[in-house]
Amino acid sequence: MVAINDGCGRDRLQCIIPPHMLENIAASGHPELGRWAREALLRSLEIRAVREAVRVPPRMPARRAATAGKHRLVYDAGGSFDLPGQLVRSEGEPETGDMAVREAYRHTGTVWEFFRKVCDRNSLDGKGMTLASCVHIGRNYSNAFWDGSRMGFGDGDGVLFRRFTRSIEVVGHELTHGVISFSSDLRYHGEPGALNEHFGDVFGVLVRQWKHGQEVAGADWTIGSELLVRAPTRRALRDLSAPGTAYRDDPFLGNDPQPGHWDDRYRGDTDNGGVHINSGIPNHAFYRAAVELGGRAWETLGSVWYQSLLLLKADDRFRDCAEVTEREAARQFGIRSREVRCVRRGWRAVGIVV
Hints:
CATH class of the largest domain: Alpha Beta
Number of helices: 10
CATH topology of the largest domain: Elastase, domain 1
Strand order of the largest sheet: 1-5-6-4-2-3
CATH architecture of the largest domain: Roll
């Protein structure tokens, strides 16, 4: 297993499936799913331990595109964790016939175009960074991650999770972690970490809404619905419109623990202080503001949230984010604008008053 340390991000391994979900699967009693979930947890711990303690130099450093346009590389790990694997598709090359390669190539391209056209940002670092992806990681590996320089995708277990390249908002979420690491670099613990996850979720859904031209009223506000093998007890990983409802009484996942209000926040230590759990609070604030404002969210609040991300500091908390987003809305649209009122009301709806 090769570790990467390219100097960006405090905790560079950021996974779409959080530890509490994997722990529930491991304790579910299903022999194969339990074993695979335990292996996934161990893999995450191993990668973090190597990167933080050993500091092994990168084998595939973050590189800059040779042209002003997007530059994508897709690698095939061949079922191993020895990354990056074999390079199977570069920018401009034809299809390989592998659906995971196709989806990784297309979705990373869409995310690049979103940040370029909507946010005027040249790739993740703002300087034309190559978007590298590794597919077919591990056997029955159920996760996707950003590790500081590249995306990684497992193929799922076929019982609970499907191929992780399927979901464009998951790709958008993970690549947004890259944008964060090159901007505010929000510390991956507690409230700053929950904000880190929040921005990933927000830009994940905005990428999808932008691609499909959706206005907020008819938009999909879930994360990862395409990843799950459907069942009446589960429909997504998270839901910005209704935190805590993405899965309920599921035999493998249990209950969605996300709160939608500050008073119900998680106060424990697991999940780096609840980074994937308490992100439901700012997620719902954004949703409430966007729905009240209406229209195309990426054109209004998306701009406010992107510029706010550039202004936040690494240890900022929910109240800081509320203050910065309200101030940025006033700068862009005017202090007495409807946008400012909607942002303020969104935060107040989840118990954050500025």
